[in-house]
Amino acid sequence: MKRFILTGAPGSGKTAIIRQLELDGFSVVEEAATDIIAAAQARGTAQPWTHLSFIDQIAGLQRDRQIRASYQQDEIQFHDRCAVCTAALALYLGFPISSFLAGELERIKRESIYQPQVFFIRNLGFITPTEARRISFEETLRFEKIHEETYRKFGFDLVEIGPANLAERVSIIKATTG
């Protein structure tokens, strides 16, 4: 099975791309951070990203989803983010890389979980705030740079998907995966 990561800054269009790939019949694995944020906010924590435990909660859910998805018999899977994104998020938030996250980063490297090519979805030139996405466009640019540097540090090759309409972006991804 080939597992490809889609990553990029918040609001870059990853979710729309993942949804279209799913509609086109591909297996997809959902992003974890948005679900962690929604669950925490439902429990009354308005800004869960201010708590150190936030990073490990994301890494744990990502790991669980990746392991569950590994039982599927699909030739290609697309993952909306992975633990490398969580490491970038920790850096962005000024948090240390926890021992759990470090272990997860080592596991995905040791087991070659993901393809070395990562689809890096570039920002669209604007940001639309949501309950889970409370970030300015300027901050998304900083976050995008941290993501890019983190993936390169971990040895991944970035396949840049620039701003374009949804069909064009999905077409580039499909052509690259063969």
UniProtKB/TrEMBL annotation:
InterPro entries per record: NadR/Ttd14_AAA_dom (IPR038727), P-loop_NTPase (IPR027417)
Organism whose genome encodes this protein: Telmatobacter sp. DSM 110680
Source taxon at top rank: Bacteria
Name used for this protein in its record: AAA family ATPase
Domain NadR/Ttd14 AAA: residue ranges: 3-169
Gene3D superfamilies, alphabetized: P-loop containing nucleotide triphosphate hydrolases
